[in-house]
């Protein structure tokens, strides 16, 4: 199997398989565990982290708070490209690639 790339992350959360998501997490520059956290904390932390990353770096936020899957990408705006992955057990990963 070839190494997963950013392009393997798809717009629909249920289309990214677990193996690819795990490989992308392994290559992430930074991972934030936001499980149990609610808005606006995840947005604030994402914005702070993105500001410190280099272009092309990937921040991954792991969350169980569904509104974060929409609010975090909106919060980082044009500073990062966002994609979302959904597990089968109610966990989400928000992949943010610094522009």
From TrEMBL:
<feature type="domain" description="UPF0033">
    <location>
        <begin position="33"/>
        <end position="98"/>
    </location>
</feature>
<protein>
    <submittedName>
        <fullName>Preprotein translocase subunit TatB</fullName>
    </submittedName>
</protein>
<dbReference type="InterPro" id="IPR036868">
    <property type="entry name" value="TusA-like_sf"/>
</dbReference>
<dbReference type="InterPro" id="IPR001455">
    <property type="entry name" value="TusA-like"/>
</dbReference>
<dbReference type="Pfam" id="PF01206">
    <property type="entry name" value="TusA"/>
</dbReference>
């Amino acid at each position: 199997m070839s190494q997963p790339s950013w392009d393997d992350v798809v717009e629909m959360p249920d289309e990214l398989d677990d193996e690819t998501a795990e490989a992308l997490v392994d290559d992430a520059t930074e991972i934030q565990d936001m499980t149990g956290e609610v808005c606006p904390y995840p947005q604030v932390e994402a914005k702070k982290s993105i500001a410190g990353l280099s272009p092309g770096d990937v921040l991954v936020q792991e969350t169980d708070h569904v509104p974060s899957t929409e609010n975090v990408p909106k919060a980082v705006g044009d500073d990062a490209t966002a994609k979302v992955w959904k597990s089968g057990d109610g966990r989400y990963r928000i992949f943010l690639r610094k522009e």
